[in-house]
Amino acid sequence: MKQVYINSIGSISGQKTFDNNEFLNDIVDYEDNVISVIDPIYKDYIPPAAARRMAKGIKMGVVASKIALQDAGLENVDAIITGTGMGCVRDSEKFVSAIIDNDEQYLTPTSFIQSTHNTVGGQIALELQCKGYNFTYVHGSNSFESALLDAKLQLENNEEHNILVGGVDELGDHTVTIHKLINHIKPHAVKSSELLKSNSVGAVFAEGANFFVLSNEKQASSYAEVTAVKLFNTLTKAEITKAATDFLAENNLEVSDIDILILGNNGDIEHDGYYHELQSGPFKNTQQVYYKHLCGEFNTASSFGFWLASKIIKTQSLPESVKLNNIKQASFKTILLYNQYRGENHSFTLLKQC
């Protein structure tokens, strides 16, 4: 089987990540419980007339994918695989609201057409004129990892050579209101830099798009190698440590081989305990990193963690803003990522220097 490499990245998030020449040099410290992305200049990538008709998620996805393609020096790819938890939720809200407001009459189909979860992948394909494999995974907070696993299997078996893989989710006003009512969003504004000290239920919700060109052909500019991905629907806190160490053993690694552990802590006191099991357990002497204070929580937020790991390995630098502890490593060759959301959809991803 062939090896799989990350040849490029493109990110739009609550930080200024759309510029690949920067690496979290200028951190935006929010004080809120819902965070929007910092928008790039969309007209630099999409004609203004077309951009006006696009939902926020579509624009973010199209631009992040174009940044990734530029970074890889490609004009097209063999396949496009997208992960999303809620899809184009704003257009879904518009259409449902129109049904209610217009008493189910005189409805325009535009919002309905653009509300489907695969709209982002379809729009990217239209922009690129890519007629290859195009699939969208909607697996909650494992959506991005599902897309990543699909791409990895195809590349390992040499079915394709370059695959665009990404995760994208947008905020919708009605959806945010619902999540606030059921305490999935923190009841009060929280300062980003003090997220883990919030001592409250819920997370700081956000949106974002992170895309990557994966290939089985290594380039001089490649970021890292994707070694393994493993998903679990449910795990108890007592099972986390064994799941992590078993995952490493399956890949002929031990805890001491991991240079950095990247965790998806979001400040929710009811569910961050899953991360604490690893933090205070087998990885207590490992450099630990977190990222959701920078990008917020959304179904494909783990794609931002994947972006972070890729940048750390390529630049061999670790921004102070993401450190969870003060353990220092001389170099960053092997990184383990672990994410879960509200006790479900656990994922382990292993990246290595290539």
From TrEMBL:
One Pfam family in the UniProt entry: ketoacyl-synt
Coiled coil: none
InterPro entries documented for this protein: Beta-ketoacyl_synthase, Ketoacyl_synth_N, Thiolase-like
UniProt keywords, alphabetically: Transferase
Gene Ontology biological process: fatty acid biosynthetic process
MF terms in GO: 3-oxoacyl-[acyl-carrier-protein] synthase activity
Entry keyword annotation includes ATP-binding: no
Domain Beta-ketoacyl synthase-like N-terminal: 46-220
SUPFAM superfamilies: Thiolase-like
Protein's name in the database: 3-oxoacyl-ACP synthase
Organism whose genome encodes this protein: Hanstruepera neustonica
